[in-house]
Amino acid sequence: MLVITSPFPKTDSIAESWRKPASYLFGTLCLAAAIFTVPRGFTVGWHEAIEQIGFLLLILAALGRVWSLAYIAGRKNRELCRLGPYSLTRNPLYFFSFVGVVGFTLALQHPILAAVAAAGFLLYYHAVIRSEERRLRALHGAEFDDYCATVPRFFPRLAMPTGAESLQLHLAPFTRGLREVFWFLAAIVLAEILEWAHVQQFWGVITLPF
Prior knowledge:
This protein is mainly alpha-helical. The chain has one domain. It has seven helices and two strands. The chain has helices spanning about 15, 20-35, 45-70, 90-105, 110-140, 140-150, 170-200, and strands at about 35-40, 205-210. A two-stranded parallel ribbon has the order 1-2. α2 (about 20-35) runs antiparallel to α5, α3 packs antiparallel against α7 and α4 (about 90-105) packs antiparallel against α5 (about 110-140).
């Protein structure tokens, strides 16, 4: 009997194994809250300002994920990437996803939802990241420990990124990653549709304190 084994250790972490299903569930709950609740002062005053900030964060999230994918797509686990966005934070894809989640909830003019979504994201992905770190330490040993000592885990350090003169782009995984980038841009349109629907009062909503 031929047994084929992977050179990369598989995770036994529940948090990491359920990352995508949990993300979809989390996104669905946020969307449901956005559909059936609105903040007091919706569409006026400072709520309009945070909507524009939300749009900017969504664009930043999309561009940041494209930048990160260019460096990591097709290389995850095989290489320890320390260039580009990975010279600023060890988890730029997760960081820019966090920016996108906050951006979408702010684009909905929903500061309470933004706070809840940010807290939920950080809590869950802390477990995911710690699990991935154990695998990367097993794969790369002292090199990964040195990386951890110089680059922060999540929030980027304030410095110029270390670039590369050229990159080999792995098109298949890069293209798959772009599908997720699309949703951050689509969220801008979705936020505008929801705002219009709430203004038209197509269904009843709960008004939150702010």
